[in-house]
Write a structure and sequence with these properties.
This protein is an alpha/beta fold. It has helices spanning about 25-30, 50-55, 60, 65-75, 90-100, 125-135, 145-155, 160-170, 175-180, 210-220, 245-275; strands spanning about 10, 35, 85-90, 105-110, 200-205, 230-235. It starts with 7 loop residues before the first strand and ends with a helix.
């Protein structure tokens, strides 16, 4: 018997941005009956301007991917039931890592950072991640994207004023360790393992996580009995959560979750109908 998706959603923030990037999404899904939780990353429970004022931040710089995975696993363990996970960028990878530990009833990976071994040869990807990886720079010093790096990696194609406003509102310092750990076994996914339903959303104009890289990530999943879905949306860059089209993306996710609810509800009703027919 399949489990009906939980009414709890845990939004998982990506790297380089404040958890307030989920504010509109939280309001949207709350209005549709979900209980929404947005835990900030460790050492990042502050506004983006305040976090930038702390740059360089040795505590942020020390954050590792395994630590983040356990942080979210511990957060989920305290909930009354398994949640739905919706993660963006590095949060998408964390969603994948947590799903393979059977900690959620469903997951949505929005422009997900790829797990270990999933690669691309797109130049835009390498140009975008070279700074965050911080090779040849002190790893104990946190990394803050310059505005020009933000324009290319996050807000490409947007008007200058909107790019600037997004940077001021959301850009925060990040750990170089977290970016580098995405290349290690800390980011390993067992693609043959059964998993809860997982939806990938990709954007056609994303520089840092190209749609083709998202598609490669999706295609690696091999378990035939598990639900894995993929959708590419036009005109979305990496700032997808805050673009004017964000509501369309949220509706896409909502429709997918409602479809799961319908299928699970039908499956759950079968034993009852069989009992009544005796």
């Amino acid at each position: 018997m399949k489990t009906i998706p939980s009414p709890i959603i845990v939004f998982i923030t990506g790297a380089f941005v404040s958890s307030s990037c989920w504010d509109e999404w939280q309001t949207f899904f709350t209005s549709h009956g979900y209980r929404c939780l947005v835990p900030a990353w460790p050492r990042k429970d502050a506004t983006a301007p305040e976090l930038r004022r702390r740059q360089p931040d040795a505590h942020v710089a020390a954050t590792r991917l395994r630590q983040l995975t356990e942080y979210y696993a511990d957060f989920i363990a305290k909930l009354p039931e398994k949640p739905i996970l919706i993660g963006h960028s590095m949060g998408g990878l964390l969603t994948q890592l947590l799903l393979q530990r059977d900690l959620a009833v469903a997951g949505v990976a929005i422009h997900s950072v790829p797990p270990q071994g999933v690669i691309t040869f797109k130049w835009s990807f390498y140009r975008s991640v070279w700074g965050p990886l911080g090779y040849f720079t002190p790893v104990k010093r946190s990394f803050l994207m310059s505005f020009s790096q933000w324009q290319y990696a996050f807000t490409n194609g947007m008007p200058l004023a909107a790019q600037r406003a997004a940077y001021e509102q959301f850009a925060v310092p990040e750990s170089k360790h977290v970016s580098r750990d995405g290349l290690t076994s800390a980011a390993r996914i067992d693609f043959a393992r059964p998993h809860a339903p997982l939806l990938f959303l990709a954007g056609s104009t994303d520089h840092i996580i190209p749609a083709s890289l998202n598609y490669s990530n999706y295609r690696r999943y091999q378990h035939s009995g598990s639900v894995t879905a993929y959708r590419e949306l036009p005109g979305r860059n990496h700032f997808v959560l805050g673009q004017p089209t964000w509501r369309e993306d949220a509706l896409c996710v909502l429709a997918w979750l409602q479809q799961l609810l319908t299928v699970a509800g039908a499956a759950a009703s079968v034993p009852v109908l069989a009992e009544a027919g005796r």
